[in-house]
Design goal:
This protein is α/β, with parallel strands linked by helices. It is built from 14 helices and 8 strands. The longest helix is centred in the C-terminal third of the chain and has 25 residues. It is globular, with a radius of gyration of 20 Å.
């Protein structure tokens, strides 16, 4: 956003800590040198537009963000490349390049459209966070107290159909930012494992943004994954955080859901408060050095935490897609009464005859 998508003077291969604009920013934690130092082999880039754009030009803004990320990656072809499958990640791991993946953070970016969802998949997007800090007409988020929520607590009927269409496509369903009701509805609806891409445990930090224990337990039955955030406000409810706080949340998720259902979702570049010792993407080895001192964590378990759990979930989502390959794309349209009062500036067909002419 600082560059307004003008990237000619920007290079992700540079050490941004040495550049004033980025080195002094509390939101700058990632570049390719730091990813290499942190031994990161796969990175999701979050495609995000503000909630204020909902019912306006959100789809256009989202497409422009995808374009910007793709141009950013193209500028460093020897060091990173866009991948779209679990097998691609392993292939690039063998080549030594960082696998870059796209995820859309906030279902408001879909414009309430199955067609937009499919187009985003075709562009390489592989997860969608159902909500951000705002409700959509079909899904309830955890953080909007405006009273203008969706037409049902949790998922509406259309929201459930959106989740099944994501299953059919092979798009991972991300429940970070979703309300507990939405998460429960998704777990009862989804045919594939789900993820929380950057969340923490509510038992250790009692905020709506974090995951309660009953959902952590249910996640094991779904086969899904909580990727623990490094944002201090999620870990310690606003107090300064340390590596030990991250480990406490990791251990709680492991206790409630099992070691196969916990991963890392730091949220670097999207947060401004990180734990001491995990200041940026170069510090992952420090986290694993601490965990190695805990005899309850085996090398096999640490490999799962580091990425094998995500690869398993990604692969299972692809298997569900393959099993549903004979299913036709959903032609469901969100009910007009769900959006009519909030989306006045849109083209309406005057009659069925007008619609047929398109």
């Amino acid at each position: 956003m600082l560059l307004r998508n003008k990237l000619q003077s920007f290079n992700l291969s540079r050490d941004l800590t040495q550049e004033k604009q980025w080195g002094n920013s509390p939101y700058s934690h990632t570049d390719l040198p730091r990813l290499r130092k942190g031994l990161v082999s796969a990175q999701f880039w979050s495609v995000y537009v503000p909630c204020e754009a909902q019912y306006m030009n959100t789809v256009q803004l989202l497409l422009e963000q995808i374009d910007a990320i793709k141009r950013l990656l193209t500028a460093s072809p020897k060091e990173t490349t866009l991948v779209t499958s679990s097998t691609d990640i392993m292939k690039e791991f063998g080549c030594g390049r960082v696998s870059s993946l796209l995820g859309v953070e906030g279902g408001h970016g879909l414009g309430n459209s199955m067609g937009v969802l499919r187009a985003l998949y075709d562009l390489g997007v592989r997860y969608v966070t159902l909500t951000h800090k705002c409700h959509t007409p079909w899904a309830e988020c955890s953080e909007d107290d405006s009273g203008e929520g969706p037409n049902a607590h949790g998922l509406t009927i259309y929201g459930k159909k959106m989740v099944v269409e994501m299953n059919r496509l092979g798009m991972m369903v991300d429940l970070s930012h979703s309300s507990a009701n939405t998460a429960r509805d998704v777990l009862a609806t989804s045919l594939a494992p789900v993820i929380f891409s950057h969340s923490a445990a509510r038992t250790l930090c009692d905020i709506d943004r974090n995951v309660p224990d009953d959902i952590l337990s249910a996640l094991a039955d779904n086969g899904g994954l909580v990727m623990v955030s490094f944002y201090s406000d999620f870990l310690t409810c606003g107090k300064p955080a340390a590596i030990s706080d991250v480990i406490a949340h990791i251990n709680h998720v492991r206790t409630m859901a099992g070691v196969d259902h916990v991963g890392l979702g730091a949220g670097y570049d999207g947060v401004n408060k990180t734990p001491q010792g995990l200041d940026d993407a170069s510090h992952y080895p420090e986290l694993f050095a601490e965990l190695l001192q805990d005899p309850s964590w085996s090398i096999k378990d640490l490999k799962k935490l580091a990425g094998l759990n995500l690869l398993r979930v990604f692969g299972e989502v692809e298997k569900v897609r393959d099993r549903m390959s004979a299913d036709a794309p959903s032609e469901e349209i969100i009910p007009i009464h769900d959006i009519d009062s909030r989306w006045p500036c849109r083209y309406k067909f005057a009659s069925l005859e007008d619609a047929a002419r398109t």
